[in-house]
């Protein structure tokens, strides 16, 4: 729980080691966007946040929209990280929305109903939560590029969906976490989609392969951009954190570049 | 010719020694997964066992060379040898004709030997890494029996007809289809036979889709349609005991569509032709004359785990040993001519070259 040592990722995301400053769930009301590429997957960040969201507070709830993998995959991964998704689901803290086969039936036309139905489902799940669990809700989306696919390529529908989710979470102090594959949008015309989402995000986590190539001890580098807003003075500051990571079965290690012995 | 005693071949980890109480065509993998062989023993070793059941393998073709067909042939043939049902789709009018080109296990006297070692003594200083217990340099002592996990397939010897005249093989031509719905339905039907239940896997199946977005197909400009087809295929595959291999030419798609496909793949490979008579490459690599092409391993399936698979090398040369057997070998840099001062200074085993070179030693 709070006794755990905070690693570099936690600190970058806004967890404070000083308990006086610590909010129960620092990601409340914030949108965390994780960006990755083909060479290096950013899914481990989602797993990290998923685990943290359960350990942060005894009555937090997570709604997980899975477009990329079935529940067995996440179950196994999280179990090795020390988190039992099945028991969280049984106690009403974990809601897995399987979107693997979500596809609009009409080809060629944008699917307004499909994503709207998904959003309504999220709202319904949240409204049915018990009052204590409703305080610290996290919505996780894996991943956004599949959202677009499910909407048959209508990036407007996908952006609208994200806006709706963002409004829902920011107004109610829930957390929103999403994964996107940024290399899909690197050519000119589609980059506006990515830029819009990046603009919306409060915390941007960019996962890249090491510039120097593959290595067994360092799997890649992370840049975390935290747009902190000091609400009292209205000043917003941006904190940037850069570090490397190595993914293991039961843990991910984060360390500063070159500090690995 | 047997290797000399300096190699540790007989004591290196033998992947097939993991006892599988199931069918010989299946092998237990990590994290509750099961492997089936790709039909190429070198590729199985590179991938850590083979193709994972439930995964989607995508092979990026080189529009100038048919090397992806070599991989497909071995994949399909291996499945038929293990009596694993196969669904094959191609943009040709009669996909069944392709089955006649599938390879058969080589005869036992054609043991695959590794590169002849007569030049070894001259090159030890550059190739010393080979002797640090790398398992992939074993002599393959397969006797070509059908009960092996992976057979040495002889591309010059066609597979006996009885393997594919049975109901084991379904072929679908996508040449004249206006869209991919027919293929999707056939795949769904096929996959339903292998859906995973709590009792564990009993049989496995294979789907091979060749060049599914080639320009001769009528739907080849409907990118979202093709993407959603692959996505639904992937979704169905995850809950069944099938490996789906799809090949596609990325140069004929828009970059973002190609990237989306690459992200959807669980295992991502690419094959490239190498030009004949390229003097620069000939200077750079040993054995250049024997190489048919290059294989790049971009991604290896990570089902049920978050840990990525980091390979020692990601680029391999494609060679046909004795013009029959497909092998993949690590690239070995030729000794650099000290007087000339070669510009290829990249000899670090674990680094990846820039895109211009794209050769990883």
Description:
The complex is a heterodimer of chains A (261) and B (361). With 261 residues, chain A is of the alpha/beta class. Chain A is built from 8 helices and 9 strands. In chain A, strands 3-2-4-5-1-6-7-8-9 form a 9-stranded mixed sheet, with helices on both faces. In chain B, α6 links the parallel β9 and β10 (242-248). With 361 residues, chain B is α/β, with parallel strands linked by helices. Chain B is 20% helix and 20% strand. Chain B has helices at 41-46, 67-81, 96-99, 120-123, 181-192, 223-238, 255-264, 279-284, and strands at residues 26-28, 34-36, 51-52, 56-60, 86-90, 103-105, 153-158, 169-173, 205-209, 242-248, 267-273, 291-299, 315-321, 325-330. Chain B starts with 25 loop residues before the first strand and ends in a 31-residue tail after the last strand. The longest helix of chain B is centred in the middle third of the chain and has 16 residues, at 223-238. Chain B: Pfam families: PAXNEB (PF05625). Chain B: Pathway: tRNA modification; 5-methoxycarbonylmethyl-2-thiouridine-tRNA biosynthesis. Chain B: InterPro entries: Elongator_complex_protein_4, P-loop_NTPase. Chain B: Residues 1-23, 352-361 have a biased composition (Polar residues).
